[in-house]
Amino acid sequence: MHYFEYFDQKSVEEIHAATLQVLETVGVDFTYAPALKVLARAGCRVEGERVYFPPSLVEACATKAPAEFTLHARDPGKNVVIGGDTVAFIPCYGPPFVTDLDRGRRESVLEDYINFVKMSYASLAMDITGGMMAEPNDIPHARRNAEMMYASMRYSDKPFMGGAIGEQAARETIEMAALVFGGKAALAERPPFISILCSRTPLGYDDRMLGAIMAYAEAGMPQLISSLSIAGATSPVTLEGTLVVQNAEVLAGITLTQLVREGAPVVFAGSSSAAAMRFGTLSIGAPEMAVNTAATAQMARFYGIPSRGGGALTDAKIPDSQAAMESMMSQLMATLSGVNFVLHSAGILESYMMASYEKFVIDDEICGMCKRIKRGEEISAEKLALEVIRQVGPGGEYLTRMHTFQNFRKEFYAPIMEERENFANWRKKGGLTLEQRANRKWKEILAAYEEPALPGETDKALRRYIDTL
User: Cα–Cα distance between 60 and 65 in angstroms, integer?
Assistant: First the structure.
């Protein structure tokens, strides 16, 4: 399919030129001594913690990042290609609270995280098991990342997202994955996970993120180099100015990864949006977020690097009409603009603060619809259907034709919560709202879940590892 593009080529080149100027003359703060040493050796001017990037170095490093790479699942049939014309949907990430219609809003625990792993595994639309889909607040910090990684590898055989809360979490993720996937050398050849590492906007990176970036790059592990700039708060109020700040942060991080390990897989990850100016808070349901998503996809294509943006994002507090409106806007924009890696594709509420069981299922439906749109069409004799049109002629019907029976399953998207009956039948079945049907559906998914069990010795090795933390 052809992609929607927000800017023309001249504008993209102007944004790139402005970004290089910022990197060269304003610089980016790096608060991690090992990163400063790597950048200084490569020719960057370093003054204290401020790094000034030569444009030629930035452009050279961008060309070294691969345009496409594969995440290798425990089940090879679920491998995921990142880049090119592909799109991958990944569920919610980071919320410390969860909600459902039965229990309401509450702090999330490990059981919630495991439930979202199982729901991601069962989903036909989610390609990758999420990262911190629901923070396990009942687990001590020292073991929290390891327990999430264990759950991701035990309860799903899809690729997953690695720890992103510092160098220690990165090394835990690498070591645990090595126990399952054949050692560290095998990981570099066939990476099973990807992680997200974020800038400290505006124009900075802290030591925790930099330690993780370097650890993952050294190991050859894919990572999202991400910026979340807030227009009017942590970046200029203009979307173009915000895009320049975001661009500078992402390119600075990508430059570091390529200096640590040339060819390390990265994703150009933009998630910037606007401030809700009346409240001074981040708004992820704003149309400006969708604009940034389209622009991020364009800039990533300009550099020849896979992109991340969008998601089923909303500022709504419950899975209501606002949530549906904002989520479809953002998810569809990511799909149509050619984003390769769509994080937060299912479950997010309350501006990243809460994950909803019901919204997870509703968003999964949205993702199925978006994948149907993304699939596109191919002109062929079967598709043009001239023969059946001739047979039916004016005033006929197609419902009973063999052409219909042979093609409808692959032509039409089949909803996971179909509600297309007439009013009388809907009332007879209880007249349930979408949220109520989603409540019933997530319970059915968990009740029907069957574990893709790890080999016994592998499971024991993972548990022994966690016990040492």
Answer: 9
The domain ranges of the chain are 63-375, 381-411
Closest to 194 in 3D by CA, of 211, 229, 219: 219
pLDDT at 1 over 80: no
Query: Count of alpha carbons within 13 Å of 426, Cβ hemisphere only?
Result: 12
Instruction: Return the bridge partners of 289, or none.
Output: none
Can you name the CATH fold of 63-375?
TIM Barrel (3.20.20)
Task: For residue range 102-127, list pLDDT tens digits in order.
Answer: 999 999 999 999 999 999 999 999 99
Structure tokens at 410: 């692959």
> 52 pairs with which residues across the strands?
45
The dihedrals phi and psi of 46, each to the nearest 5 degrees, come to -120, 120
**Contact 293/333 with Cβ under 8 angstroms?**
yes
pLDDT for 29 equals 98
Answer positive or negative: Cα dihedral of 454, 166, 313, 343: negative
CA distance 61 to 23: 14
What is the rounded distance in angstroms from the CA atom of residue 252 to the CA atom of residue 204?
9
For every residue of the chain, which 3-state class applies, written as one string?
Answer: CCCCCCCCHHHHHHHHHHHHHHHHHCCEEECCHHHHHHHHHCCCEEECCEEECCHHHHHHHHHHCCCEEEECCCCHHHCEEEECCCCEECCCCCCCEEECCCCCCEECCHHHHHHHHHHHHHCCCCCCECCCCCCCCCCCHHHHHHHHHHHHHHCCCCCEECCCCCHHHHHHHHHHHHHHHCCHHHHHHCCCEEEEEECCCCCEECHHHHHHHHHHHHHCCCEEEEECCEECCCECCCHHHHHHHHHHHHHHHHHHHHHHCCCCCEEEEECCEEEECCCCEEECCCHHHHHHHHHHHHHHHHHCCCEECCCCCCCCCCCCHHHHHHHHHHHHHHHHHCCCEECCCCCEECCCCEEEHHHHHHHHHHHHHHHHHHHCCCCCHHHHCHHHHHHHCCCCCCCCCHHHHHHHHHHCCCCCCCCCCCHHHHHHCCCCCHHHHHHHHHHHHHHHCCCCCCCHHHHHHHHHHHHCC
Q: Is residue 137 pLDDT above 90, yes or no?
A: yes
pLDDT at 420: 85
- Give residue-wise pLDDT tens across range 417-434: 877 889 999 999 899 999
Structure tokens at 249: 């942060």
Position 307, amino acid:
S
Amino acid letter for position 356: S
